[in-house]
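Fill in residues.
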């Protein structure tokens, strides 16, 4: 039997729903504004007339994006770095997490200490750059995927997941039946670890897709720049063109750059928005179970 709500319960629900609604508006409206701004005349944006619905729709920004070779090149590069980098990240992270979860691994506490040590103490930007240079990885794809190939935080989450979900008795039973360590890892551990694998794919893929600092440091060729760097260059061009407009009145260039800025933000966000629904059902389970101490 459902108990009737008291006045205190009603007041609590009212305050709760009001706060949630306000937070929802604060999160959704900036995203909605960017979408509307990508199809709106920039003059309306500057004048503050764009609040909810655009008066004059224009697709010039998306047309410019779809016909700009550098943007397609950056999109291809970002996709390459994301797929290759995420594959390397997930393989190394899942392998390290599983190995460190095994109680029969000799010296696992030492390995764990060395990994955690790197979370608090790093070599710094200059020594890292010199190392990448000495390894011959400057201006190559490997400079975008090899450095930071393993996140220690993700290794800890993965290790905890294996400890919490794969009891030692399962390994013992498999060994009695003649299963080797490699076969147990590939045929039993990995299928049971699909939730944490999905979480790692999402974490690493989003990080690679949004990464631009490494490209600024290690990549000199414009043909290898990811989409985020190209977006950054367009934003810089947009800011720099304000001074030019005062001198030669190039308003059309300013409008094109403004429309492209919003359109590229939408286009660059699509892959992550497409990927997330497929991993959502694994995400909560894998993240929560992997974050609990077993």
């Amino acid at each position: 039997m459902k108990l009737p709500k008291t006045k205190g319960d009603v007041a609590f629900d009212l305050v709760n729903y009001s706060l949630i609604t306000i937070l929802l508006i604060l999160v959704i409206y900036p995203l909605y504004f960017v979408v509307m701004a990508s199809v709106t005349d920039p003059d309306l944006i500057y004048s503050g007339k764009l609040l909810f619905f655009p008066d004059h729709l224009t697709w010039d920004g998306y047309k410019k994006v779809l016909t700009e070779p550098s943007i397609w090149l950056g999109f291809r590069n970002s996709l390459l770095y994301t797929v290759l980098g995420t594959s390397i990240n997930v393989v190394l992270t899942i392998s390290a997490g599983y190995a460190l979860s095994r109680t029969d691994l000799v010296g696992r506490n030492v390995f764990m200490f060395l990994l955690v040590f790197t979370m608090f103490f790093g070599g710094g930007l200059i020594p890292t750059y010199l190392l990448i240079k000495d390894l011959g990885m400057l201006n190559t794809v490997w400079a975008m995927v090899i450095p930071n190939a393993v996140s220690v935080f993700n290794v800890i989450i993965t290790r905890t997941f294996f400890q919490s979900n794969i009891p030692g008795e399962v390994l013992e039973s498999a060994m009695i039946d003649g299963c080797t360590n490699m076969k147990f890892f590939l045929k039993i551990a990995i299928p049971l670890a699909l939730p944490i694998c999905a979480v790692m794919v999402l974490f690493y893929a989003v990080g690679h897709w949004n990464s631009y600092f490494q490209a600024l440091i290690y990549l000199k060729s414009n043909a290898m720049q990811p989409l985020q760097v190209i977006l950054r260059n367009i934003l810089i061009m947009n800011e720099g063109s304000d001074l030019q407009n005062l001198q030669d009145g190039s308003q059309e260039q300013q409008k094109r750059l403004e429309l492209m800025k919003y359109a590229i933000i939408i286009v660059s966000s699509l892959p992550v928005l497409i990927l997330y629904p497929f991993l959502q059902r694994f995400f909560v389970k894998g993240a929560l179970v992997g974050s609990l101490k077993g």
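The mean pLDDT is 80.
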